[in-house]
Amino acid sequence: MDAKIEKLVPKLKMRNFEVRCCETADDAARLAADMTENDATVAWGGSKTVAQTGILELLRQKGCKLLDRDSAKTPEEREELMRRGLLADVFLMSSNAVSEDGILVNIDGMGNRVAAMCYGPKNVIMIIGKNKICGTLAEAEYRVQNVAAVKNAERFGLTKTGCSKGKCIDCLSEECMCSYVVKTRRSKVPGRIKIILVNEDLGF
Ligand code: SF4
Q1: What is the residue-wise DSSP string for 121-170?
Q2: Which residue's CA is minimally distant from atom 8 of ligand 1?
Q3: Count of CB atoms situated within 10 Å of the CB of 159
Q4: Which domains does the chain show, CATH number per domain?
């Protein structure tokens, strides 16, 4: 296991996060599926990591009820699915970055992803690749807006944000992905936020 992961585990545990470690994305997907009840309602934030692991297919095979906003046929239906996600049994996501002392940093344009992380779903399962582990909190914040956001701007085909041109300019564009910049210092409810650290690079 990468030394960065080994050092991070106790820091996360001190903050009431439940922590597991996996060698590969496949292992992480299987573990996350095992941690989810067969009849659970599951929602997720837009996440390259979640898509990459194949976890959604495993949950579908288990019979979990997936609240897939991308299956919506109208904007209204999509909005409704996002709202229902706030009361899911399990919310899946990654974190845009985590500092070496265990603070999670996340940006969100709409806010539904960070809202679900903070409160609502009974369980939050985060799958975090080792590429998201930073040094100081300042370095984690830099990563979120100058590495993750740059790649996400490209993924979503954005053109109006600074990061779509390669660097955060603290924009207020209608396309802004940083309406909410959330630092999570601890899980208020012990173990509600369950972190799976993966010894591979995953997502942005
Ligand atoms: S340029 Fe705007 S959207 Fe991009 S990272 Fe900065 S504040 Fe966020």
Answers
A1: SSEEEEEEEGGGB-SSHHHHHHHIIIIIHHHHHHHTT--SSGGGGTS---
A2: 178
A3: 10
A4: 3-100+110-133+182-198 (3.40.50.1360)
- Range list of H helices, 35-111: 48-53, 55-62, 75-85
**What pTM value is reported for the model?**
0.94
Residue of the nearest CA to atom 5 in ligand 1? 145
Candidate from 106, 114, 146, 176 with most ligand 1 atoms within 8 A of CB, to mutate: 176
Q: What is the pLDDT along the chain (204 residues), one digit of tens a residue?
A: 899 999 999 999 999 999 999 999 999 999 999 999 999 999 998 788 888 899 999 999 999 999 999 899 999 999 999 999 999 999 999 999 999 999 999 999 999 999 999 999 999 999 999 999 999 999 999 999 999 999 999 999 999 999 999 999 999 999 999 999 999 999 999 999 999 999 999 998
- Do residues 82 and 110 make contact, with C-beta atoms less than 8 angstroms apart? yes
